[in-house]
TrEMBL record:
The keyword Nucleotide-binding does not apply. It is a multi-pass membrane protein. This is Golgi apparatus membrane protein TVP18. Keywords: Golgi apparatus, Membrane, Transmembrane, Transmembrane helix. It is found in: Golgi apparatus membrane. Pfam families: Cg6151-P. The keyword Transmembrane helix applies. It comes from the Eukaryota. Golgi membrane protein involved in vesicular trafficking. One of its GO terms (cellular component) is Golgi membrane.
Length: 149
């Protein structure tokens, strides 16, 4: 299934996965860019970097199999197999990122907004009864395979 077909699928789980990948990129890029502040924003930049790395393992489970990780970490990432749990982790990460705005408004706001949108998409997928489906473009089963029984 092509990328455009996945966008036309109206499956919020797919939308959330693509927004999750955008969140990972923004977390890592903006986390590094904001490490050079003098204020307490440095702490939130470091937290955003950690969030980005955790999200890599949550959104791309193949990496957990390729990279040597502990069984506890593998169990931790496997706990986010449902849309509701993914929505929860994304909203928690968004809140942590937004808390950095207390000290200074930075570009980390963009990462927080995208994480909040990702949480909203995962929540809508859960409410609408969409099962978590990984994108076929990223090596997952895709929407077509999940619809065919």
């Amino acid at each position: 299934m092509a990328f455009l077909e996945e966008l036309k699928s109206r499956n919020f789980s797919i939308y959330a996965q693509w927004l999750g990948l955008l969140s990972i990129l923004l977390d890592i890029i903006l986390g590094i860019a904001n490490l050079f502040h003098i204020k307490l924003v440095v702490l939130f930049s470091a937290l955003t970097l950690v969030e980005g790395v955790l999200l890599i393992f949550i959104e791309i489970p193949l990496l957990a199999r390729v990279c040597p990780v502990s069984d506890k970490f593998q169990a931790f990432t496997n706990a986010f197999a449902s849309n509701y749990y993914r929505a929860l982790i994304y909203i928690l990460f968004a809140v942590v990122t937004f808390l950095g705005c207390i000290f200074q408004n930075t570009s980390l706001i963009a990462a927080g907004v995208v994480m909040a949108l990702t949480a909203l998409c995962y929540l809508l997928a859960g409410i609408r009864g969409h099962e978590f489906t990984s994108s076929a473009t990223l090596g997952g089963t895709g929407v077509a395979a999940s619809m065919v029984v």
